[in-house]
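Mods, move this if it's the wrong board.
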Amino acid sequence: MKVSEQKTKSPAYAGMLLLLFPCLFSPNLFSPLSRSSPSLFSEWNAPKPKHLHLLLNALLSQPPFKRQLDLWSPLPDQGWKPCQHPTLTPYLPKSRGYIQVFLDGGLNQQRMGICDAVAVAKILNATLVIPHFEINPVWQDSSSFAEVFDVDHFINSLGNEISIVTELPSEYAWSTREYYGTGIRETRIKTAPVHASADWYLENVLPILQRYGIAAISPFSHRLAFDNLPINIQRLRCKVNFEALVFVPHIRALGDTLVNRLRDPGDLARQSTGKYAVLHLRFDKDMAAHSACDYGGGRAEKLALAKYRQVIWQGRVMKTQFTNEELRNQGRCPLTPEEIGLMLTALGFSNNTRLYLASHKVYGGEARIAALRKMFPRMEDKRSLASSEERGKVEGKASLLAAVDYHVSVDSDIFISASPGNMHNAMLGHRAYKNRKTIRPNMGLMGQLFLNKTTDWTQFQNAVVAGHKNRQGQFRVRKEKQSIYTYPIPDCMCPTRN
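Not the wrong board. Structure tokens:
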């Protein structure tokens, strides 16, 4: 009997898996995370593989050579290239005042906010103060703009577009985050609508600038429209995102070190193609709780995630009215590490693939990653590739760790994200700008395939390959209201042929 014909519930099937791959069921691997120190969010039932009938086949299969060759081949010229920006320095008119913005969210959300802040300063003919980063309530990171991004490069790159200062002159020294947090202030704009137009800023912010010489906008996330803006404003946003925003030297240096080790992995060099893929595995507790899907951790996990939603979001995010099956059919459940591993194997990634795991914290710990690691034993991350001394300047700082992952991801031969999100969106756009391969998981298809417990490996493999044929970096022209940071054509890129 072929492996793919084994029945899902068969004791012999599970026994074969246990004999061949005992580490998947190691007592240490699936033991409770910390029985000695229970907390509000304790989950005692560590996750085990959910798709055994597919997992065994994935572990035993070897993708056809042609499929691997096609998978790793670079993208051809698709008829678009980054637009050239003027090199001459134009005359900058006299500034109308200073613009401050306070940015929340994680690194990639802040990145988009910076681009929008530059554009708003240009619209208002104002001087931009280097944006202030709020402390993220989930990651608890207090890193500043200057700790993440190269300030000098940022200012110099945009010197012919707008005026930028690192701090306010003494007469405006009172305009601080603390000042705006202690009461209603006439210089703070709290009413900027999501995706506000250029006219909104001219009508509502410009009068404050003209009266006080300064305006502080908070909140500012997603506060500038993607449509009906002058082409020079759109191109400026692209210039900020893809050229002006570079990480500080020590982040770039660590990122380059990781890239070099991934491309030349020491003693294994003879097995290496010099290529590597990045998997962004956003499967943290925040994502798991927000999605309200069932991830196989049993009642304890469901209760813990419900408690997390209640405490962290205080009722703003409630359990969805849809069942787990409905959510998965709609493609609204993040893929688990096991599921993304099965998808990658079906697409043609072999167990010799040099895979870099870009992730903050994986919900469920090492137990949750065990099946993925078994499918891809050469999987690496920041901690396996770099020493504690090399990581010293970024360790414990979520934004800096995310910046390292971003750097490694942009340079990779292939990038895959396990679920949509800000990192997925940012990388989709940045890699399109560089014409590099990015695989977008078909979430609806994958959800349906994983719900069907009768699908054998061959059927699963064929469905995955067919469902991702046109989701590997082919250019997509931006539609109305879509983000230019995710879809840079046609705002950021110009045709190579007229």
